[in-house]
Amino acid sequence: MSAEGRREFIRLLVGWSVCSVRQLGQDESITYGAELECYSIAVPDSGAPDGCKVYYTDTMVMGAERLFGRHCRCFKATATKPAEKVTEDNPFKHDVIIKDSWTEFGTAPDTPEAGSGSESAGDGLGDEQQQVGGMARDIPQTSPATAWPTEEELANVDSFDPGLLRSEVTLLRKIGDALEQHEELDGLYPRLEAGGWVRQGRGDNPVLDSTREMIGGLSDEQQRVTPFCLHVRYAMTPIGKPLCEVESVPELIIVLFDVMRCYMAINNECGVLHRDISENNIMIVRPIGGHIHGLLIDFDCALDTSVEGRAVRPEQIGTLPFMSVANIEELQIERTALDDWESLLYLVCWL
């Protein structure tokens, strides 16, 4: 290791030594109950007496895979508190999926000097791919064009311009409201039970969980090159299973038909473009005593095309090997539903 490398390593260790517990990644809204051998998770809910609805879980579907900090995690959970210790003979009856992730705050630069320094910077919220277990996985990246939001702006986080926040929970609320009368689509897309921005700390003034809480204050120049994220958590139904668990080609056809029928309704009636049709984002649901059906999930990459100008600033986003040609080659043309249909064709070939 070079002298400069040793210096940077020592600086890293010193930085960790002076970090607060919260900056090192402790999440005060998730606690473990030894008496019941399960976790309780506080999910923001404006209708609850204290602003949160508590769920209980003993099963993590997906966990954070990076060194430290809080990243995207998913849990199978229930709102019913166990009456006694959870065991093999007294298992959980999971009925919701809780997704715990970070939403990026960004801008939509129109000039080369804003964002990444290129006219094709788009809205500055691109994705980079990392190979994990042989499959490509999305790693959100961002190049903010401006300094982080102010304390006053964060105090009114629910009124943020949807063009500045890629918020899955906001899109799911919009989709749920628009498709509420379409009973034939029930179960084909995630329905929110509760969700919102996570606040850490107890007492009368909990702190909105954000990049600022994790790494502290930075100069304006540092802020321009450091992604600013807000912590969001939400509970959804139904619980799906991986697409690989279909038992026949007819079942696969049913699932894909259901998902794309739902996709077109979301696109046409909600103005939401999914932009990540892939093997991991199509699930199957096999109700007891019912027929198998599909479930379209993960609207992290989705775009609200009703926001002026968003659809005409294309970005490379999605999951290899299912990205459309225009997407993977970063062609400067508007992304449409045809790109997602192209992804579906690649998925069929992949399967």
From TrEMBL:
Pfam families: Pkinase_fungal
Source organism, top-level taxon: Eukaryota
Low complexity bias locations: 113-122
Gene3D superfamilies: Transferase(Phosphotransferase) domain 1 (1.10.510.10)
InterPro entries for the chain: Kinase-like_dom_sf (IPR011009), Pkinase_fungal (IPR040976), Prot_kinase_dom (IPR000719), Tyr_kinase_AS (IPR008266)
PROSITE patterns in UniProt: PROTEIN_KINASE_DOM, PROTEIN_KINASE_TYR
GO molecular function: ATP binding; protein kinase activity
Annotated ranges, domain Protein kinase: 115-351
Chain segments carrying region Disordered: 103-133
This protein's name: Protein kinase domain-containing protein
